[in-house]
Design a protein that fits this description.
binds fe (ii) ion; 0% strand; Four Helix Bundle (Hemerythrin (Met), subunit A); mainly alpha
Length: 150
């Protein structure tokens, strides 16, 4: 079943929520490819999803570092473990295995769990550090950072 975006997946950091929705979109595209038994489409989505997710991870990690988030390192490790799992699926797919269904199930449970637990945990630290930047930047009249948050 396609993932439907629900309120409890929103972190309240707009740029992060947009990226998470994009990842959900890729997972739903993967499901569509699985249903159509379209191996080429599965391979294509797998590449795009991996690229996008890895850059999302890097972005999240830099926000956490800038905020001095105390669990930045373990969060990064969780991302790395996931990246290895995805790479393993990629190898199996390239080797001719039909991994699509298993991969889809793993992605759904991993992503939802990671957003709700690990990502939600950094939100207040990252928001707090961004609010400090807002207070400083506002003196010079820049409004961009306000739009960073919903
Ligand atoms: Fe995330
Ligand atoms: Fe994360």
């Amino acid at each position: 079943m396609a993932i439907v975006w629900t309120q409890d997946l929103n972190t309240g950091i707009e740029v992060i929520d947009i990226q998470h929705r994009m990842i959900v979109d890729y997972i739903n595209q993967l499901e569509a490819a699985v249903k159509q038994r379209d191996r080429v489409a599965v391979g294509g989505v797998l590449v795009d999803l991996t690229d996008y997710t890895l850059s999302h991870f890097a972005f999240e990690e830099s926000l956490q570092e800038d905020a001095g988030y105390m669990f930045a390192k373990p969060h990064k490790s969780v991302h790395e473990v996931f990246a290895k799992r995805i790479a393993r699926y990629q190898e199996r797919h390239n080797g001719g295995d039909n991994i699509a269904e298993e991969l889809h199930a793993m992605l759904v449970s991993w992503l939802i769990d990671h957003i709700k637990r690990d990502d939600m945990a950094y939100v207040s630290a990252v928001k707090g550090s961004m609010l400090k930047v807002i207070a400083e930047k506002d003196k010079s009249g820049t409004g961009w950072i306000k739009r960073f948050f919903k």
